[in-house]
DNA sequence: AAGTGGTCTAGACCACACT
DNA sequence: GTGTGGTCTAGACCACTTG
């Protein structure tokens, strides 16, 4: 692990544990460089991570300050539903409605930046969180990129298979949040009493090898949906 | 403007203009350093911005590659509604329903990290976009931080007043997206035909001096709401 | 004037992917 | 082995804030 990452984690630990309190000044770059036996630039690189996370503010001529205590798990948006549930202590049950391999339609091929007609997994799942059917996930992934996916993985966590057994890392995701009217099928799957609106999270995701490996469309119950994030000017 | 920012903008321009095409390799760090007459570290800093924006992928041992052409305006989430409309060529009309100064309630004070009872602006506005009442915005800001705000500013753009006339910069924002049921009042203001769900964007925003200057709650029509963003592992 | 962060350099060494 | 990006250093200079 790079040194700047260790410094980042240690300073972050001190912030969340209250050693560095909100609105208080952090030690100067030179002090931290001395403590961690590194150059000031390495310290700056570590603190920049905290700035981007929304925890720290650096003011030229003044010093570095703790902005606030809590922070959204800043990379939680690159996790799958199963990991997010585990992380927040929620129970998850998955109902697989569809798990097949089909030639990519023109629409799906365009989303996945791949040739039309190549095989993709088509997966539809209902996610039951804390006993409530909360999310319907439609997922498409090129078979060529994710070999040997089976029903067991789909029932549990596809992300866990990809990051664990295949050894990949999810590098990035592009997402789009909007509102949609629930279809008849979705009303049934979510056991809704009638027509309603769902919150749709449309997403394409990339592996660290640069391949676009997933297009997914997740439709959430509006009253359990929550999406938290930070934006920091760079 | 720092050199790495110029390099960032120039390389970005070349990507969006197609000079560097998707999936193609960018010139190596050493080549770019030579072209821009700077050190490789400065080039790396520039390319890191593009990586974080989701436009570029750097692979150790291989090179840097263009990931995709288009990108969400990556900092558009730090703009106000008026700027976003202007940027995307939409017309905006604003109906100010409330513009007063009141002592901060316990709830608002907690959101704004300020003492209860200090004066805050309380502003309710309906935003009519392309002729459709689309957003209801409830905004609270400490008077002490944003002096001399008047009805003209509120009718146009508060952000424009803050960044233009006051000379501040919006440094960061923390936001939370969820679904809510529209109130009677909101049904009337948005001219809805009946009860429906709205998409709520809850936000606290910071100035570059580190002050929390705004808590706002924007409720959007679900069928016009759209929120686009990228997440990149750091 | 003194202290702080921001930028930049030149060079070193390492990790990784290809040949 | 060669070439690529990733990390790190020591030091320089600048911009900004406060005294």
TrEMBL record, chains A, B:
HTH gntR-type domain spans which residues?
A: 1-69
> Which SMART domains does its entry note?
HTH_GNTR, UTRA
This chain belongs to which protein, by name?
GntR family transcriptional regulator
Pfam families annotated for this entry? GntR, UTRA
User: Does this entry carry the keyword Kinase?
Assistant: no
Organism of this sequence = Scandinavium hiltneri
Q: Show the taxonomic lineage.
A: Bacteria, Pseudomonadati, Pseudomonadota, Gammaproteobacteria, Enterobacterales
Q: Could you tell me the keywords of this UniProt record?
A: DNA-binding, Transcription, Transcription regulation
Cross-referenced InterPro entries: Bact_HTH_transcr_reg (IPR050679), Chorismate_lyase_/UTRA_dom_sf (IPR028978), Tscrpt_reg_HTH_GntR (IPR000524), UTRA (IPR011663), WH-like_DNA-bd_sf (IPR036388), WH_DNA-bd_sf (IPR036390)
